[in-house]
Write a structure and sequence with these properties.
about 180 residues, 1 helix, elongated
């Protein structure tokens, strides 16, 4: 019985075809890696924006809660809506405390491309605000809080945010989150 393998010509042709396929695939691979990197960066941006929207929204939903007789405004917007101060009775003692240890107000503002917060905020100005976003990674291009009144219903509070990753070109990614202000 005689065994027979591939001829030299067949091996060379198979090698040439395999080389062409590998060269084609290697040209496609960097583009694929770039697309995956851009897509994962976009997904990271979207997750971070939604995280901050939900955090701010949670505070806005609490605005106006009082287990007693609280005096003053529960929700104050300034700077055309790019700064908001929220007051709620966090410890349910019946009033909105202003002491350093029991402060019931929280502020959020857009400042120099970063979203900032301050516990005990009484004004949108001043120092001591803590950055919620890292300006070296992310630029917040737009942050606005608007209250929409509906006759016979609790007001809606709309939070708009637009952000772009640092160093990227193009339009910022925008999101809108709406909560109901039951205590307003």
């Amino acid at each position: 019985m005689r065994q027979r393998g591939f001829s030299l010509t067949e091996v060379l042709i198979a090698t040439a075809i395999s080389s062409l396929l590998l060269i084609s695939a290697s040209r496609f691979l960097p583009g694929l890696q770039r697309a995956v990197l851009v897509q994962s960066g976009q997904r990271e941006l979207e997750e971070e924006v939604w995280h901050h929207l939900f955090s701010v929204g949670k505070q806005l939903q609490r605005a106006g809660y009082c287990a007693g007789n609280c005096q003053g405004q529960a929700l104050v917007t300034a700077r055309l809506g790019s700064c908001v101060i929220v007051r709620s009775d966090a410890n349910s003692n019946g009033n909105w405390d202003n002491s350093a240890s029991e402060n019931d107000s929280t502020g959020f503002r857009l400042e120099s491309g970063a979203l900032e917060t301050l516990r005990g905020a009484t004004s949108c100005e001043g120092k001591g605000w803590e950055k919620l976003t890292d300006p070296s990674r992310l630029t917040i291009a737009h942050f606005v809080v608007r209250t929409v009144e509906h006759a016979g219903f609790a007001p809606e509070v709309n939070i708009e945010m637009a952000a772009i990753r640092k160093g990227e070109k193009g339009e910022p990614w925008q999101a809108l989150y709406t909560v109901t202000g039951y205590n307003l």
